[in-house]
Specification:
single chain; 171 residues; alpha/beta; Rossmann fold; 5 helices; globular; binds flavin mononucleotide
Length: 171
């Protein structure tokens, strides 16, 4: 039995995404007893529709909520687009409002972008509205200079920052 179940969500759908690579880097640091999974179905979550947000929502939404419910910790790692939260990530979070899926859930927020402060602040506000328990957050500007073309993290400060995040996760 794993002693911790971690569910990681990348806000980027891009192949070769820096945010995916950060999540893979963190996954590589997890001890064997941690069950760590990166969500691969963000693009499949349908547009939020309050009329469908009833006792039988779309199956992808049910699965997404269950993955959060079964996780001890959720990690969200996302870029910023046009000074905001990527639409598909915000869309997925909107599906968790009525179900209270994130209430009291331990969440780690990492925003890795060119600048990223607007999306980071916006997500902290959204997670507050969802009553999530944000246990760590890390803003990573200039991300494209901190990861090489093979997806390896080449910046020592970022490695240190992720190490601090990891310590919090494993506490
Ligand atoms: C359409 C678009 C809009 C963007 N807007 C912003 C922005 O407003 N602020 C910012 O910091 N970065 C912005 N970026 C840069 C991304 O945050 C950056 O490319 C990041 O590496 C993307 O994450 P990914 O590598 O995980 O896909 C934008 C990128 C795209 C493609």
């Amino acid at each position: 039995m794993p002693n911790k179940n971690i569910f990681a969500i990348s806000g980027s759908l891009r192949s070769g995404s820096s945010n995916h690579n950060i999540l893979r880097f963190l996954g590589g640091l997890m001890p064997a007893e941690v069950d760590y999974a990166i969500y691969e179905d963000l693009a499949q979550i349908p547009p939020f529709e309050p009329g469908l947000d009833n006792e039988s929502p779309p199956q992808t939404v049910i699965d997404f909520r269950n993955k959060i419910t079964n996780a001890d910790i959720v990690i969200i790692c996302t870029p910023e687009y046009a000074f905001g939260v990527p639409g598909q990530l915000k869309n997925a979070l909107d599906w968790t409002v009525s179900s209270s899926t994130l209430v009291d859930k331990q969440v780690v927020l990492i925003t890795a972008a060119s600048v990223g402060d607007s999306a980071h602040a916006s997500l902290l506000k959204t997670l507050g509205a969802l009553s999530a328990n944000v246990i760590a957050d890390l803003l990573v500007p200039f991300i494209r200079a901190k990861i090489d073309s093979d997806g390896h993290i080449i910046n020592d400060d970022l490695k240190v920052g992720l190490g601090v995040v990891l310590d919090t996760i494993l506490k």
